[in-house]
Write a structure and sequence with these properties.
globular; four-stranded mixed beta sheet; Immunoglobulin-like
């Protein structure tokens, strides 16, 4: 059996390193919670976690998830369940009148719970600041061992 030349061995090693780097990705942690408005479940829309660069989160994508009819959501990151550790600003969009989302088509990180059109039944009005990353006052830290309810989002009307 003949051994590979040095250039061939270096090329093979480089290919292995490149493949390992591309497939490893960041570790994801489960993130799910309930979205409420004035104590009542928000029955449709989507939640997006935007990496908070001011707190050291330099993630280059936004984990997101659809809000179910019970107000529950779970985040997805690039088609996989969960989100990386770190601080995030949180935005919430709905299909409520005046929010500009009625009949809108959205895809939320290939989440199987994501609707092709946001729920038409959501009647709750929320403060428009929640849809703007520069104005939202919702902030969450994704941690390895969250306490119960840590990712619940309580919105004002």
């Amino acid at each position: 059996m003949r051994s590979l030349s040095l250039p061939a061995r270096l090329a093979a090693l480089g290919a292995l390193i490149l493949a390992a780097g591309c497939s490893s990705g960041e570790k994801l942690y489960p993130v799910s919670g309930k979205v409420t408005v004035g104590g009542a479940a928000l029955t449709g829309g989507a939640v997006t976690y935007i990496p908070d660069k001011s707190k050291g989160n330099n993630l280059t994508y936004n984990p997101s998830g659809a809000i179910g009819s019970d107000g529950d959501y779970s985040l997805m990151s690039n088609g996989k369940a969960g989100a990386p550790l770190g601080w995030y600003k949180v935005t919430v969009i709905t299909d409520t009148p005046g929010m500009g989302m009625s009949g809108a088509s959205v895809e939320v990180n290939k989440n199987p719970r994501a609707p092709t059109a946001l729920h038409q039944s959501s009647a709750a009005r929320i403060d428009p600041k929640y849809k703007d990353p520069a104005k939202t006052d919702l902030a969450v830290e994704v941690v390895a061992s969250p306490s119960p309810g840590q990712y619940d989002l309580k919105l004002a009307k």
